[in-house]
């Protein structure tokens, strides 16, 4: 009897494991706070569209450095990578943590949750101007707020007017209390 009961429990567990990924609930952590598209929605959207990514005819996005920061306009490039990012941001604002390489004083980057599929059109870039915004595969946005000589594989997705106010906002983005990190909020401006 104990063997039959153990076999039945084992069978139920074996059948429930493949079903665990079928849930439609959204899992959120602090790095994805503010995002309202669940991974199952993004997965079903990309599987229905094949290689078609959400696209937008938007020519600019609005970016804030910190929750209460001043808004700055990012002028988008005309390519499928920028259009896909604008399409996703048009559906839900992105609130992403800010990182930098070795405390860089010329750039910072924002990791996009992996549930978003973004086309990569990268090419070798050897020079970045202050205000240049690139996509780095997989799922990373890189902002240069000072000029830099580089050797990276990037897709240019947009540009900011690198005014003194813009650079100041990037450099003085406050650390989010209780989180220990800075954030950036990207929206379609509506």
Automatic annotation (TrEMBL):
UniProt feature coiled coil, ranges: none
Alphabetically ordered keywords of this record: Signal
Domain Cyclophilin-like: 69-172
Region (Disordered) residue spans: 23-58
Signal peptide range: 1-20
Superkingdom classification of source: Bacteria
Biased composition annotated in UniProt, kind: Low complexity: 23-47
InterPro entries: Cyclophilin-like
Name of a matching Pfam family: Cyclophil_like2
Protein name: Cyclophilin-like domain-containing protein
